[in-house]
Design brief:
mainly alpha, 80% helix, 0% strand
Length: 321
């Protein structure tokens, strides 16, 4: 990002995408290793998940009561797999976010960048991201509870042929999914960047993210909705061709398509994380909140155990908290 901080606010969505795509060129080896070590396993797990669970679900649907002992075994296998999948997904999602945000900020402040320094910073960054994620999860729990409640109301209304209630419930579900879900996702992504680059995390980072989103909600909505749509299309094609297309496409065709889709998702996730970082600087510029590069440089150094000056335009706090 060679633009002056005050000019970042004028970036459009195509400009943000171009700027994000150009960032890895400044340290290709570092981003190559981050992609290989963190983003590739995350992307592979997201798509391969359905490939492994589909046979178990098919077995359960085919013979639900044939053998109670076998059914319990398959349910145990499914739930165990789901548990470890969610742990893996959660861990690598936060690790990828920490690595990309830290590396982009290091480049922004002209701090020496390497894969080893990024990995060294991750443990302290991870703790802050985890606390922020916990608060976001609480918010998502409330959101999901409301969504399920109105889905139940919608089903009941359809069953009782209540047209007005059906319409109202459907509209609420639509707003919750298209509006609230996308907004919470944007809030979470921006709060994750705040948690890494500023001396706040958790609920405080969410509040800061909420303030930064003001005036840029439309742009955030387009970026997040676009990302979620692309991921949904990739997952849909993977499910149709690789998971369910055994008889139509053959083993070789499924392997080729599956490998290609994993590669596409890797690129999408990498660009998404880069956009997430760039968008933070755009929001800071829009609200005329100057970023002291020297103070940010020192803040990043704190993750690596470097000396952090007591006097800084950014009020520092104990990074071990």
């Amino acid at each position: 990002m060679d633009l002056a901080p005050e000019e970042l606010q004028f970036l459009s969505i195509p400009d943000i995408l171009r700027e994000s795509i150009s960032i890895p060129k400044r340290s290709p080896k570092t981003f190559y290793l981050i992609t290989l070590a963190l983003i590739f396993p995350l992307s592979f797990a997201i798509l391969a998940h359905s490939l492994f669970t589909y046979p178990i679900l098919t077995q359960l649907e085919s013979h639900p009561l044939a053998d109670p002992a076998q059914t319990r075994h398959e349910w145990t296998l499914l739930l165990t797999f789901q548990f470890f999948y969610l742990i893996f997904l959660f861990a690598f999602s936060l690790l990828s976010t920490a690595a990309v945000v830290f590396t982009v900020a290091s480049l922004y402040t002209s701090k020496p960048v390497s894969f080893s320094s990024t990995i060294s910073a991750i443990p302290k960054v991870f703790k802050r991201l985890f606390i922020t994620f916990a608060w976001v999860s609480l918010l998502m729990f409330v959101y999901n509870a409301l969504l399920i409640a109105f889905l139940v109301i919608f089903v009941i209304a359809v069953d009782t042929q209540n047209a007005l209630l059906s319409f109202l419930a459907f509209m609420v579900v639509l707003v919750l999914f298209l509006g609230v879900h996308v907004y919470i996702t944007a809030l979470w992504h921006l709060a994750s960047v705040v948690s890494v680059l500023e001396p706040v995390y958790g609920l405080a980072a969410m509040k800061k993210s909420y303030e930064l989103l003001k005036g840029r909600v439309k742009m955030a909505f387009i970026l997040v909705f676009g990302y979620l749509t692309i991921c949904a299309v990739i997952a849909g094609i993977f499910g149709t061709v690789v998971v369910h297309g055994g008889e139509s496409y053959g083993v070789f065709g499924r392997i080729v398509v599956g490998g290609f889709l994993v590669g596409v998702l890797v690129i999408v996730n990498l660009v998404g994380l880069l956009v997430q970082s760039v968008f933070y600087y755009v929001c800071k510029s829009y609200h005329h909140q100057g970023i002291d590069k020297s103070a940010l440089h020192d803040h990043l150094g704190g993750y690596l155990g470097e000396y952090v000056p007591l006097k800084s335009s950014i009020q520092m706090e104990d990074l071990d908290a």
